[in-house]
Amino acid sequence: MKKKRLITALGLSAALFASSSGFTAEALTPAQKAEVQKLIGSYLKENPEVVIDAIQAWRKKQDAAEAAMTKEAIAELMAETKDTRSPVWGNPKGDVTIVEFFDYNCPYYKKVFPSVKKLIADDGNIRVVMKELPVLGPNSEYAAKAALAAQKQGKYDQFHAQMMNKSSRLSKEGVLSAAEKVGLDMDQLKKDMESPAVQQELERASVWAQRLGINGTPAFVIGDQLIPGAIDGQQMKRYVEKARAAK
After folding, report:
1. How far is the first Cα of the chain from the last one, in angstroms, to the nearest whole number?
2. What is the pTM of this model?
3. The 96-102 sheet, strands edge to edge
4. Which residues, at least 6 apart from 201, have a Cβ–Cβ distance to it below 8 Å?
5. Sorting pLDDT into bands at 50, 70 and 90, what band is 27?
6. Closest Cα partner for 96 from 118, 127, 117, 75?
């Protein structure tokens, strides 16, 4: 009965469209349009699963398209990291690259930091590319600029660790205090913080985050996998092992 109704509706619709020279909805008379709409509406009311199936199919198609775009973005990101200007933590020649997006004021990243540090120390063959993504306001942006400026003085690692040691949210004063503790040239630091190179690095990280659909920190790319959110050391280790095995 349902099939018959559908065939009847489609048949009538086809006949109505065929009767118009242009086969367009605009060519139908108001009465014809009303009849088609009535038939379609009636059929969908009696068979709501058709709408549900259509929505599910659409979502599946959208998910597949998004997954393909993410996979492409990850491949391009990993290719770029082979000759990156971003700070690198761990073994610069490591066989597995982790790209880390973070904010110095993110409490979740502060929890993850010890696990990342331990993984790098225990493995010894991991290369971590640091992507400053200050999403939590002006103080986070100030901290990110200071860290990238510290890279120019060869003290990014020390400065990064010093800032991670602070349990409270970082203020501008806290950032400068951390810089002084690791022995940075403060005048040079402040000058480099406003350099085009620092601004370009922040903008580039933001573009990558947008392409990957990263809305918060931390987020990691390990091998061909995007891992949004905080993960523990064991999970991170498994991702590294998977990436290494895939080489």
Report:
1. 57
2. 0.75
3. 88-90, 126-132, 96-102, 219-222, 225-228
4. 85, 86, 132, 148
5. low
6. 127
